[in-house]
Amino acid sequence: MTDLLQPRAIGQGLVRRDGEAKVRGTATYAYETPVDHPAYAHPVQAAIARGRVTRIDTSAAEALDGVLAVLTHENAERLASTEDRELAVLQSPEVAFRGQLVGVVLAETSELARQGADLVRVSFAEEEHDSELTVDHPALYKPDKVNPSFETDTAEGDVAAAMATAHATVEQTYSTAMVHNNPLEPHASTALWEPGAQVPLTLWDSTQGVHPDRAAVCEVFGLDEEQVRVICPYVGGGFGSKGTPHANVMLVVLAARALPGRPVKLALTRQQMFFLAGYRTPTIQRMQVAADRTGRLQAIAIDVVEQTSRIKEFAEQTGTPTRMMYAAPNRRTTHRLAPLDVPVPSWFRAPGECPGMFGPEVALDELAEALGLDPVELRIRNDPEVDPETGKPWSSRHLVECLREGAERFGWADRPPARHRDGDWFVGTGVASSVYPTMRQATSDALVRFEEGRYVVEIGAADLGTGAWTVLPQIAADALDVPVDDVEVRIGDTRLPQASVAGGSSGTNTWGSAITVAAREFRGKFGAEPRDGDEVTGSVDQAAKDTEHAAYAFGAQFAEVRVHADTGELRVPRLYGVFAAGRIINPRTARSQFIGGMTMGLSMALHENSVWDPRIGQVANHDLAEYHITVNADVGDVQAYWLDEHDPYVNAMGSKGIGEIGITGTAAAVVNAVHRATGIRVRDLPVTLDKVLGGLP
Hints:
By secondary structure, this protein is α+β, with helices and mostly antiparallel strands. Helix content is 24%, strand content 26%.
């Protein structure tokens, strides 16, 4: 059991410390780094889905006044490591997917660089490509593991036998769409290579982790960590896409090394991000659920098919929530991948759990209908006493309380009957559960120093806009037993102590644990009256702290949907979420995170779909004009609540992570509400007009 901090600053809804700088425009992002006389880079991309470059004519680009260089596979630096083929930029004439980098133009202005890139003429030898995911793709294979290191398949009992003898069963296939991260700040970098300097490479990068970013650059270019500094005080959103560096980061470093002493800036366009910055793989989920007359689950199984790139495997852990969410004696999960001629998929907010909660939560709604049972009650009846996958006790599990409080706040007991009509609108309500594991990264370090009358905390953490600038001082203040105004934090620089990536809702859990260790050691060593210069470094292997309990955050999502009887137009007047996510460090930033996740879940339900054209191997709607996301008009009342949960096992703060629990379950709740309103069961996301109009009463 962890010695929990006694809250004083923790729990206060403090205003964001970085808020004023962002509103005033003084927060410096990677591309805006003030450097002397920068050059600008613009990529040249492959116009085929598979094949090889046979000829590149750069003469017209090089003839432009102001173009400094054009790099291709013919003249680019040879990289020290090409093991990661996504990052092995400009090393080969081979083309693995449409949009792959085949060159870069460096120029005095961004406009000249773009013009030069348009003038580069590339000839290709095109080969037949395969870029369409199907449930029976002939090349399906079983990966060795699913992200990050879960078993690929699991099985317990006999699902087939249970399905054959159960009172009620559901056997359906559900699918989620390919979707792309579109943070407001695009993937952008500024790089400076100074061969004679003590630190030759400085990289200002929009990243979710400066230390992992540096490690990847060092690996690819054969540099020591002391030779590279990565700086990132502010990030304009990432949602997973900036959690690991992509090809654009290596391209800007390659460009900077071609222009020693000259800083180089590269910002991907919105269109380029659809090729180069990762995406969530589409999934096909075959669900089987079975229950007895009382609604007790007898079996639950999910068989997942998804895609990966031929050049780099990424296996989304879509089936993992089914392993632990509900009690059932017979269970099975499998994952199969289709290797395709497509860009490399990657992390997208709540990887695995987000798509993996869609099929099961819609299937449970279908099961509740078959049993004539309230869907809230069905979930409550199947709440497991221990983790079904491991047999471990829960560190804390309050899903039932979330469901009950959410039902009361939402007015679930008084919801309208199925296919209720209010004038021109059909009205329905839906529910779904949410889950996300409480993850703790392996190692982070923090330094606490007394400096000019204030306590300074240094840690190389990243703030994606989630609130690290604000909540880390709250954690430090309570550990030091001082007012929060006396604490300053410094983050976002590899010159600061090592920090794990901001991903998997693990940032605050991990960094806060390291800060707590350092602060307590500082207090114990120097007391209440330290002198200037007193400092202590603390580190914590947070991942090894508690192995006896299964730690997860839980939640319940409730949605009201209105469907126009004539047009099929969908509106969501209300979307409520109730969460059990441990101790809430800052209610103001927490509510923002919960509502942000729910909004992305609503977007997943109604809008987001990277429409794939398999003829050419490309997303057809690769911009924000055609790639639709949720806007204010799509939802009327969004509310997020949480339980006063204290979990002594997860970390010293008792916090569980809140960045991703909000998105999981939301899409299923919306789809379930659409069904109750119209009788139409949409099993393939998103819920577009064509899937509703034909079945309206």
